[in-house]
Amino acid sequence: MTTINERLRLDGKKIYVTGGAQGLGKSMAQGLAEAGADIAIVDIQLEKAQETAKEIAESTGRNVIAVKADVTSPEDVDKMIKTIVTKLGGLDVAFNNAGMVINTPATETSFEQWQKVINLNLNGIFLTAQAAGKYMIEHGGGSIVNTASMSAHIVNRPQPQASYNASKAGVIQLSKSLAIEWAKKGVRVNTISPGYMATDLTLNSEALKPLIKIWNDWAPMERMGKPEELQGIAVYLASDTSSFATGADFQIDGAFTAW
């Protein structure tokens, strides 16, 4: 029988992280590599993805590559999977993390803005999960982790973001549906729902500084989460330890949604 430490190791696993060049994706990729996995940093910003891949490879000694892809393009996603499988030698775990938010009142949201958010946050998740799922079903199974948000469970305030909230709720229901379809095919599908996280992009935004104080005042822990505080759940869901976990949503939000 293997020990818990052995089951949490990711040695030999091939993993990709979309939106992995910065923010939460970068932090999760770092943690996954530290646990022994080879990583593909997938991002629309190739140069930034290359910088991140180099940084993680140097700090962990793992094989880390950069792949450019528009996850809203079926052709790009298919090419992405083929590139990752060729360069890493397979695909065991998929972290579909790319996303965006536009804060506008619903009455002022243009249809183009609505489509942009839904296209990346929901269609992009479907396309990448579908492509990864097809490969995994044909090659003995795997684990898919889709990034949702606590915004799938609550309506954030004071910022208006109906399109984002709707898209993230869709991610959870989509993931549960895929988990049921693929349960007997060896493919697990789960979601992570982070709360407010202190990424560099968030902390350095002048527009968000007034909101950060409000968020922290309302948070039970009176602070935002640190990106590295998602690494534990990322490693768990990528590892063999989580072999019975599928169709679940893991809220990592410092009890923000527990009010």
UniProtKB/TrEMBL annotation:
GO terms for biological process: carbohydrate metabolic process. The keyword Oxidoreductase applies. It comes from the Bacteria. Transmembrane segments: none annotated. One of its GO terms (molecular function) is oxidoreductase activity, acting on the CH-OH group of donors, NAD or NADP as acceptor. The keyword Oxidoreductase applies. SUPFAM superfamilies: NAD(P)-binding Rossmann-fold domains. Belongs to the short-chain dehydrogenases/reductases (SDR) family. This is NAD(P)-dependent dehydrogenase, short-chain alcohol dehydrogenase family. It comes from Weissella hellenica.
